[in-house]
Amino acid sequence: MNRRKTLYIISIAASASLITYLHYSTVEGIHALHDIYRELYYIPLLVGALAFGLRGAILTYLFVAFLYLPYMAETWTGAIFFETERVLFLLFSGIFSFLAGYLIDRDSKRKKEMEKERYLAGLGQVSSAIVHDLKNPLLTIKGFARRIQGEKGNVSTAIQAIIDSAEVMQNIVYDVLDFARPIHLELKEENAAYVIRKACELCTGKADEREVTILVNIPDVPMNMNFDRIHMQRALANLISNAIEASERGQNVSVSADTKEDSLSITIGDDGAGMDQETRENLFLPFFTKKSTGTGLGMPIAKKIIEGHGGKIDIMSHLGKGTRVILRLPFKQK
Questions:
Q1: Tens of pLDDT along 198-212?
Q2: Among 12, 72, 120, 183, which is most buried by a count of CB atoms within 10 Å?
Q3: Which SS3 state, helix, strand or coil, does residue 255 take?
Q4: Do the domain assignments include residue 122?
Q5: C-beta of residue 270 within 8 angstroms of C-beta of residue 251
């Protein structure tokens, strides 16, 4: 039994016992006070139902009846109206306990069923996304393997296509694993400027291919802070890569950094098409993507890495006006 349940049981026992004590310590002739005390029994009855469902509600009712009946017998007056009122309290409080416990159990069961349905739906979505992303490289590998088998076409081209497809599949597997398991950061003092520039270098090939220019604006001052360099480079490279993909040929992607007293701010901006409201709202949901390729795990993983460093990621984007991604990282990890 966990600590919370123990506290519930103690509060139920204490409140019911206190109410009974008030009955015994108050002059019997003051009926108005005794009526109030009697109604107060509904508090532990409700707590018992909320905390433990139908079983808890019934046990709490039996405990309340066990406390109240001796007092009721001891103070029996024989007055029909007065005693009928007390008997009806026992009856109605029992009905209340049963109904409250039943309804709470039913609601709890529904919630569990809905959670199970959401889990299964999410599992189906995950499976569908992974299968979809693995399908194309698998077809490529199969097709070029058959060409090699049939000695058709250029063997070196076929082998390179197989290697490229295998790397795509490997990246998908790594993305899924990185998202599914907790991130273990190895924090070391690093120069943030070096980490940012290295992330930009990792995206140079894609930028050249799409004829997009990466503009880096980083102050020439030491920006040493505790980083997991590999993870942070990956998060930044993912965000920069997204900015490049959103840009048209000839446009620029800006990467800048600014230091404040207690934090480092990194801004990645593009002048691309921007994002609509649906995309902004679902950007960090696993497997959500409007691209023709990719797992939709890049942004969730980047968010996971940034928050693992105690930071925060904000997105500002408007259709036709581009996107700004702002990272705020504290110099001291909490």
A1: 899 888 888 998 899
A2: 12
A3: strand
A4: no
A5: yes
